[in-house]
Design brief:
The complex is a heterodimer of chains A (about 425) and B (about 425).
Chain A lengths: L6 E5 L2 E7 L5 E11 L5 H11 L9 H10 L4 E9 L2 E11 L11 H13 L3 E2 L2 E2 L1 H16 L5 H13 L13 H4 L4 H14 L1 E8 L3 H11 L23 E7 L4 E9 L8 H12 L5 H9 L3 E9 L4 E8 L4 H16 L5 H18 L3 H13 L6 H10 L2 H9 L1 E11 L3
Helix pairs in contact in A: 1-4, 1-7, 3-8, 9-12, 9-15, 10-11, 11-15, 12-14
Chain B lengths: L1 E5 L4 E7 L5 E6 L5 E7 L7 E3 L7 E2 L4 H9 L8 H7 L2 E7 L4 E7 L3 H12 L6 H19 L2 H13 L13 H5 L3 H11 L5 E7 L3 H15 L8 E2 L12 E6 L5 E7 L7 H19 L4 H8 L8 E7 L2 E9 L3 H17 L4 H18 L3 H13 L7 H7 L2 H11 L5 E8 L1
Parallel strand pairs in B: 3-9, 11-15
Antiparallel strand pairs in B: 1-2, 2-3, 4-8, 4-9, 5-6, 5-10, 7-8, 12-14, 12-15, 13-14
The chains are: A alpha+beta (about 425), B alpha+beta (about 425).
Chain lengths: ~425, ~425
């Protein structure tokens, strides 16, 4: 049996994907809108995601919408944005209990689909503008959300690294936009953003749960109407080559612990021959408790509680994160650089390599146990030009050789260091 | 071997208590991964206890249960058991809470080997003076990481406000000073007191054969020759009913002030069905007071006193309990005043039956959603069991609640003398 079975049907401009599984006690429905990242609309789309979720023509007061969700046995409605490479994705999602676990057997799926359609297509608008009061409330909410990044120093330092490192690239744009732009978005402009999104974005709807595909397709077809549209071209900028000299940016704040972020560049991205090799290299470098970073920065040198790396496979970035005493900066940076050199020089055992592959395999299979991870996995088909089945991915990871890992590591170079250090240091 | 079916949830659990006292609970599920937890009924609050065979009560340094959790991963040959799990394709982890320490793994292959590894590493204490010293640097950084997290600080700050003597007020990880006092021998004393199989619960869920697991675990345990042992003896200090401190204000480098209020539970000694009923009742009262479907919530949004970060929660376990409400706010003092008025106003009017039914539906949906997660099931089942409750009985218990239960909870829990607040202002 295949690990994952997806059925897809196209209705006009909508691709509808159904994953029928009896693993879950709820049905998860996610509607995704994809468009190229653009500085003129990144903040407006963030505001739109807030506004859509809070009021519809039928339920103009947020309370009413909340109460309808509660009545649907605590259905949850959420909206959010993501940045994947140079794509900006707005998601509207509803999760709803499967009625077979509800004593009165109220049919919930159809109501949930209708509600999601209502949120997407029938917001509270008048004469080509969103409701002013709703917009103004959500402007405040969005500004606070954007500013709150500052309170989470780990996230803040990560964002600052990307600001510095990618200042000349589209990828620099913040997923939720910029606080200072929020108030300048008028209810009319927001309306335009919404219409453009409905008309031009690449649109995909996912249903995951114990649903009968044909019934689901029929219900979706009845309520979601998107006109056909030309295929979208998102230009992925290949990552810039790393500079000759590493850029080092420091900032002081009243933090107890310094937050060290190191940004590396690679020209290996999703779809490349060495993509899987890069995953194994990254695993070996900083994802697991046996990885070089954990073993050396934490276990051997006792410098940190966490030291890890993550790979942005659409953009070609490798980001290292660690929390250290500010005075240990030089020591930590030098250990981290040495770990990369060790992998580039082939100084890793077959055991480490096999362990990494086994754990990558585990992560992949485990992701099929969560409805949201299933959707994220399938959505790679939309993001990249190619799609590899779970079975083939497992084979590909397994087939990665030592030489390929070394080559992937060699095609990785340090670009920028951002260090948030304590005022006392 | 006992089999219990919960037909309305479509779940069947198998459980058995082994001769050495270890409880084994198995929930077969058709997922890819298997998730297993081995949990000790031992957490940060268990810092005063009588070690086996000792005559003197021991007062252990703050943070020792968590420190022990870190050192448990060390094997007798000095290696780290993470590596063994990794070779077997499993991701292992652990966490320490106020009253539990859980060791766990998730694996999609070599399940039986990994299960043996889990049992063996928790039942093989091994650490040296040197490795204990080394761990102090790592945990020191963990403590500092939390020190930079305002949400963590304010949550634990409020709990510390409420309690006069009870060790719930100490940080789970301790402080740099308290962990400096931890020694190899002290860790062994804690281990000997709290890690006997009769103080542990093994929970396994995933695509497993319960009979095969029971056999494997029974064989593994029989080899180790544990004798029956009396329950660990621990002691908590007497605690007044009232909140120890009404309010605390502190400063951090944040973009906006934060404020939490809460009520300390006066009688945190319920267990079993009584605890479940009380816990659900207080949670529903909170939902009716401040849930997103309420007037109150939208009034506070309208007055620009709260934002999306606003939330609430109720926790009660043997010997402690508290509600916590709040989030980011530009004006903590006014928000505190408004929330107090709302609680007082709520007590004056009759409870709304329609709102009660809606809140209950919402909770049922939330429980079903949580059951999508093996992690939730394993961790929460253990928590409920340690308090003589049954996770799988949550929905029937909710359905059995009456408005009168909420009324009682409202009068009893939301008592002004038990009120406390904690505020973080901008530096």
């Amino acid at each position: 049996m295949a690990y994952l079975t997806e059925q897809v049907k196209t209705f006009g401009g909508l691709n509808c994907h159904v994953v029928s599984t009896d693993k879950f006690k709820t049905t998860t429905i996610i509607l995704r809108f994809k468009t190229p990242l653009d500085e003129r609309r990144v903040t407006a789309r963030a505001l739109l995601s807030h506004v859509l979720k809070n009021a519809t023509a039928e339920s103009p007061v947020p309370q009413q919408l909340e109460r309808r969700l509660d009545d649907l046995y605590g259905a949850t409605l959420s909206s959010g944005l993501a940045k994947k490479g140079n794509a900006h994705i707005l998601s509207l999602a509803i999760t709803v209990a499967n009625e077979r676990f509800i004593s009165d057997r109220t049919p919930l799926l159809e109501q949930a689909l209708n509600l999601l359609a209502e949120v997407a297509f029938r917001p509270l608008t008048r004469n080509g503008a969103f409701d002013k009061a709703v917009v103004s409330k959500q402007q405040r909410s969005l500004k606070q959300y954007i500013r709150s990044v500052y309170d989470d120093k780990i996230r803040y330092a990560n964002q600052r690294l990307i600001d510095e490192m990618c200042s000349q690239e589209i990828f620099r744009l913040h997923t939720y936009g910029y606080a200072e732009e929020v108030d300048g978005i008028s209810p009319e402009a927001l309306y335009e953003t919404w219409r453009t999104m409905l008309a031009q974005d690449k649109i995909d709807l996912y249903l995951v749960g114990q649903v009968e595909p044909e019934t689901a397709f029929e219900q979706v077809k009845n309520v979601f109407h998107f006109a056909e549209r030309p295929a979208q071209a998102i230009k992925e900028e290949r990552t810039l080559p790393a500079p000759e000299k590493v850029r080092i940016v420091e900032e002081r704040q009243a933090v107890a612990q310094g937050k060290l972020n190191m940004g590396f560049r690679t020209d290996i991205v999703l779809g490349d021959r060495l993509y899987d090799a890069f995953q194994v290299f990254n695993g070996l470098f900083g994802v697991f408790p046996h990885s070089k970073l954990f073993m050396n920065v934490r276990e051997k040198a006792s410098l940190a509680y966490y030291a890890s790396s993550s790979y942005e496979g659409l953009k070609g970035l490798l980001i290292v994160n660690s929390g250290i005493e500010s005075v240990n900066y030089d020591k930590a940076v030098s250990i981290i650089k040495d770990q990369l050199k060790d992998i580039q020089g082939g100084r890793f055992s077959k055991g480490e390599m096999d362990q990494t592959k086994a754990l990558l395999r585990n992560i992949l299979l485990e992701s099929l146990d969560s409805p949201f991870s299933i959707v994220n996995l399938l959505y790679q088909r939309v993001l990249g030009s190619t799609f590899t089945s779970v079975e083939d991915r497992l084979k590909n990871i397994d087939a990665v050789t030592r030489d390929e890992i070394i080559e992937a590591a060699k095609r990785t170079a340090l670009d920028t260091i951002f260090f948030l250090k304590s005022e006392a240091a | 071997m006992k089999t219990v079916s919960f037909s309305e949830l479509d779940e069947t659990m198998i459980e058995e208590r082994l001769p050495n006292g270890l409880d084994v609970c198995i929930l077969p599920k058709t997922f890819n991964k298997t998730y297993a937890t081995l949990t000790a009924k031992y957490g940060s609050i268990d810092n005063r206890f009588l070690p086996p065979g000792a005559r003197e009560w021991l007062q252990a340094p703050d943070g020792i249960a968590h420190f022990l959790e870190h050192k448990m991963f060390e094997m007798p040959d000095g290696s780290d058991v993470f590596q063994q799990f990794g070779r077997q394709g499993a991701q292992a982890n652990a966490f320490t809470s106020f009253n539990r320490t859980a060791y766990l793994f998730a694996a999609t292959s070599e399940f039986e080997k990994n299960l043996e590894t889990l049992l063996d590493f928790v039942q093989t204490p091994a650490w040296t003076d040197q490795s204990v010293e080394k761990e102090k640097g790592i945990i020191g950084q963990e403590i500092r990481m939390y020190a930079d997290n305002p949400d963590w600080r304010i949550y634990h700050g409020l709990i510390a406000n409420m309690y006069q003597n009870h060790p719930i007020k100490i940080d789970i990880a301790g402080t740099a000073e308290s962990i400096a006092q931890i020694t190899k021998d002290l860790l062994f004393e804690c281990y000997d007191t709290f890690y006997h199989p009769s103080n542990l619960l093994l929970f396994v869920t995933g695509p497993v054969d319960p009979k095969a697991i029971l056999e494997l675990v029974a064989r593994n345990q029989a080899k180790k020759g544990f004798r029956k042992k009396a329950a660990a003896r621990r002691r908590y200090p007497d605690e007044p009913k009232e909140a120890a401190k009404k309010s605390t204000v502190t400063h951090m480098d944040v973009s906006m002030p934060k404020c939490l209020i809460g009520y300390k539970e006066k009688k945190p000694f319920r267990q079993g069905e009584e605890l479940m009923r009380h816990e659900l009742s207080v949670s529903l009262v909170l939902e009716l007071l401040f849930g997103r479907g309420t007037e109150n919530y939208h009034t506070l949004i309208g007055e620009q006193l709260i934002d999306d970060s606003f939330g609430f929660d109720y926790t009660e376990e043997a010997s402690f309990g508290f509600s916590i409400i709040g989030g980011n706010t530009p004006d903590p003092e006014r928000l505190i005043g408004r929330m107090k008025e709302m609680v007082a106003g709520f007590k004056r009017v009759p409870l709304d039956k329609a709102a009660f039914d809606r809140a209950r539906k919402k909770q049922i949906g939330g429980i079903l959603r949580a059951f999508n997660s093996l992690e939730f099931i394993a961790n929460q089942f253990t928590r409920y069991r340690f308090n003589q409750m049954d996770l799988f009985r949550l929905i029937p218990a909710l359905e059995a609640l009456a408005l009168g239960d909420l009324k009682t909870a409202l009068e009893e829990h939301f008592d002004e003398t038990c009120f406390s607040s904690y505020t973080v202002l901008k530096k």
